[in-house]
């Protein structure tokens, strides 16, 4: 069997490593002429870490990221009202990591080149079309550097095509031509990284504020002199839908657009305004996603990552789906190309269709947490609210498949382990 993967992002590269471990030949085609470590911080939850660890990447994750110790919710004044241990501190067999997205992508890229060969990732090949026959699927590419189509004789054919080509996926557009652009949520994130002293445990993820004005901060790499490279997010909900290029996640932001809302947010354990001002570049991320679709599978072609289920940038489940799902595809693939079932493993855990409820459950849990923090007194949440908060988090974990007992006790889904 031979597989073509479109896109050398987190999902595409993880899929390549999983297929290689299962003995399935594959090659990755990336649209950009050069692969660069772009982005800022992300979280990798224990169910994703398990799959990456079983692909032999735990040591690399420890080298590039930080094991998250706790999640803390605070009011806009900085009073801590809820703490929850995370990862192995919470009894999981695998840690939770906070890491720079670009560093994660590059460690996956290095692993692919080392295991599959230096020619396993082909750059400057943007997929523009895919066609299928009874014997295989053929992809047409164009060069972004030359701004022209690659010749037809250079169009490769494979048994299966995995389209991990992002939220602007040309392959998704082929199968859903009337879908339109991504949907903006009226929420904007301003994001950056700052070199700073540790706060709280030194491995804490802090969330402060409420649903329409929120601050998120967590360290993503240890540096010299006990300093930490720390990721921060300032989020606002706007009252207008008038935003150009809502799905542009990589444009530079302006301090004056959000700083007035956070200027006075200085806590005794964290100086929010100082962190923002001492940051390097600030990026503006409109929170956009895609509406659910009936299927991600089209014969010999399947969608992965943002091409399948574009998620807002604060959805940790998105990170999980990009690494957990591709890592487990090979287990469910029969060797007969005509019988490929990339979502076979989902049927075995009781979800025969691509799950539509994860984002809504995550959104409800986050909204409940943040709204309660708006006017909470310094004494913290009442017991009844703490119980509801715990229950919301548990339902989210259960729906997304990473409640502790389920994850710790289920059998491995990885075909070949290191």
Can you describe this structure in just a few lines?
The protein has 418 residues and is α+β, with helices and mostly antiparallel strands.
What structural category do the secondary elements indicate?
Answer: alpha+beta
Give the end-to-end Cα distance, rounded to a whole number of Å. Answer: 22 Å
* Low-confidence blocks of residues: 313-324, 331-359
Radius of gyration over all CA atoms, rounded: 21 Å
Report on the structure:
The chain has 13 helices and 21 strands. Helix 1 runs parallel beside helix 9 (316-328). The chain has helices at residues 10-21, 46-54, 58-64, 101-116, 170-175, 259-262, 272-277, 306-309, 316-328, 344-348, 358-373, 383-400, 404-409, and strands at residues 2-6, 25-29, 41-44, 66-67, 70-74, 80-85, 97-100, 121-122, 126-132, 137-143, 148-149, 157-158, 160-163, 183-196, 204-210, 213-222, 228-237, 251-252, 283-289, 297-298, 301-303. Residues 313-324 and 331-359 have low confidence and may be disordered. 44% of the residues are buried. The two termini are 22 Å apart. Strand 10 (137-143) and strand 11 (148-149) form a beta hairpin. The strands form 4 sheets. An 8-stranded mixed β-sheet has the order 6-5-15-16-17-14-19-18. The chain has a 6-stranded mixed β-sheet with strand order 8-2-1-13-21-20. Strands 9, 10, 11 and 12 form a 4-stranded antiparallel β-sheet that branches. It is of the alpha+beta class and 418 residues long.
């Amino acid at each position: 069997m031979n597989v073509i993967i479109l896109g050398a992002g987190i999902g595409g590269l993880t899929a390549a490593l999983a297929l290689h471990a299962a003995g399935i030949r594959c090659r990755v085609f990336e649209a950009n002429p050069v692969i660069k470590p772009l982005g800022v911080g992300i979280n990798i939850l224990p169910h994703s870490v398990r799959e990456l660890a079983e692909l032999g990447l735990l040591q690399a994750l420890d080298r590039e990221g930080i094991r998250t110790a706790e999640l803390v919710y605070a009011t806009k004044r900085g009073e801590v009202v809820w703490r929850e241990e995370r990862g192995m501190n919470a009894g999981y067999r695998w840690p939770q990591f906070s890491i720079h997205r670009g560093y994660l992508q590059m460690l996956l890229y290095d692993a692919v080149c080392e295991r599959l060969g230096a020619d396993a990732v082909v750059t400057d090949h943007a997929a523009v079309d895919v066609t299928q026959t009874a014997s295989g699927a053929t992809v047409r590419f164009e060069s972004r550097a030359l701004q022209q189509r690659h010749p037809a004789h250079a169009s490769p054919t494979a048994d299966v095509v995995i389209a991990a080509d992002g939220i602007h996926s040309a392959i998704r557009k082929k199968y859903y031509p009337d879908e339109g652009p991504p949907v903006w949520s009226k929420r904007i994130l301003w994001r950056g990284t700052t070199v700073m002293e540790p706060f709280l445990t030194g491995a804490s993820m802090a969330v402060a504020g409420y649903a329409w004005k929120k601050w998120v901060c967590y360290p993503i790499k240890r540096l010299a002199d006990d300093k930490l490279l720390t990721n921060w997010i300032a989020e606002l909900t706007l009252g207008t839908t008038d935003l150009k290029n809502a799905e542009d996640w990589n444009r530079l932001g302006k301090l004056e657009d959000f700083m007035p809302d956070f200027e006075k947010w200085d806590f005794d354990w964290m100086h929010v305004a100082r962190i923002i001002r001492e940051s390097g570049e600030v990026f503006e991320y409109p929170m956009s996603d895609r509406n659910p679709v009936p299927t991600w599978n089209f014969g010999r072609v399947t969608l992965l990552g943002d091409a399948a289920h574009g998620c807002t940038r604060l959805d940790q489940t998105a990170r999980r789906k990009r690494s957990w799902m591709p890592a487990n595809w090979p287990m469910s693939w029969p060797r007969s190309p005509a019988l490929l079932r990339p979502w076979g493993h989902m049927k075995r855990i009781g979800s025969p269709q691509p799950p539509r409820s994860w984002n809504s459950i995550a959104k409800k849990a986050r909204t409940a947490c943040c709204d309660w923090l708006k006017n909470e007194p310094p004494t913290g949440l009442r017991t009844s609210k703490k119980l509801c908060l715990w229950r919301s988090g548990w339902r989210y974990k259960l729906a997304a498949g990473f409640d502790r007992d389920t994850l710790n006790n289920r059998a491995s889904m990885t075909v070949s382990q290191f």
